[in-house]
Amino acid sequence: MQIGVFDSGIGGLSVLYEALRQMPCEDYIYYADFANVPYGAKSREHVRNCIFNAVRLLAMAGVEALVVACNTATSVAIQDIRRAYNFPIIGMEPAVKPAVSSVSDKRVMVFATPLTLCESKFTGLLRQVDINNAVDFLPLQELVGFAEAFQFDNDMVTAYLKDRLKGYDLTQYGAVVLGCTHFRFFENHIRSVFPENTTIIDGNFGTVQNLKNILLSQGNIFHGSGKVTYFTSGMQPIPSTKMERYLHLLRYIENNKPES
Ligand code: DGL
Questions:
Q1: Is 50 a residue of the active site?
Q2: Cα 159 from chain centroid?
Q3: pTM of the full predicted structure?
């Protein structure tokens, strides 16, 4: 099975990482739209064009399923790309629902890109799930740039987070939702500014499980070799060493999680 994984940049590698864990025997084409990253601070129309271009190239490359490993791209185009192609297309949305049900009397903080947060997909999700008005949200677009530049310096990132969060009483929060796939790379930084017992939730596990269930129901799984090839805008190849650096970092983050 040839699976496409698509993001504006390196954020979707956090989804690819999970996919390789749950489905190590498929073949993957990872597409990072580096010519157009970041999506989150651009106009909806511009981002939609970028997405349609990328998905057209992935379809031509023969993907049989696609993960839109980007909350922003999902917000602005998932319905329309599903209408245009007949292979399974799995999108992502901020995992607000599990976060709300995991906190009892505490609040939930959602971090995402500005475009995700102002789209009707997100506002509709909040209307449906945030019955008690317990959810706050904050755009953290700069984290996308830091991740793309492989800038994970503790002091710099935590200073940025603290500045964005000043004015919020962080002890009120029981859960933080990572509503942008780039933010997974900052899980430890985010953990360090919130109180110790705050849960950090992303949608990666659920998204991959979703895909796996669809492929299982089609009997179309476990037919590959676990090969990953990386491409950028216009289907230009990317050296795998650049991307593997990020996958190593994800492994490090996972291995150094505090005990829960
Ligand atoms: N990784 C993306 C997301 O999940 C988008 C980041 C960006 O390009 O601004 O929303």
A1: no
A2: 23
A3: 0.96
